[in-house]
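Quick check before the chapter quiz. The format below is the same one you will see on the exam, so make sure you can read both the input and the output lines.
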Amino acid sequence: MARTRKRKQRGGTRKNIIDAYYNERKDYHYYKKVQSILNSVQFNSIIDVGSRKSPIMQNLDSNIYKVMLDLIPIPPQPGMNMITADFYEWEPDRKYDVALCLQVLEHLDKPKEFAQKLFQVAPIVIISVPYKWAKGACKYHVQDPINEEKILSWTGRQPDEKHIVTDRKKRRIICLYR
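Here is the expected output.
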């Protein structure tokens, strides 16, 4: 019953719920840091895996080939190519310059397999995850707490850059791999 009320309060439709979620977060430091990292990298194509709706993708130049991939259908967005697929099973039809995976790995039972596939999809990978959140801090996270050692166990390599940012007293780590 509470779930129904919450949906109605937020507008009721899946699109409105997703819009509200991202509108609340659009000014988060981790988005700004990822945008800053992207501004330092040359690329013509990018895929955001597990994106739902990405303010970062919306801010990219219109000449960049942009793909958003998620397990659940994503509402259409101008200038984006949408793919609904299970990333574990998905076979790319091309190599991308950059793969983004923001706030996804903490939700997965097999984050190592997922992370390893990101490196097959693109030579430049940007991953962000909650950083040292207490176990149970978010009921949807199955991997908390996450630290550098856990990320290394998933990726098999040290990041070329890592940044820790804080939003609403919660830290996230952003790792860039080249």
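If your answer matched, good. Confidence is low (pLDDT under 50) at residues 1-10.
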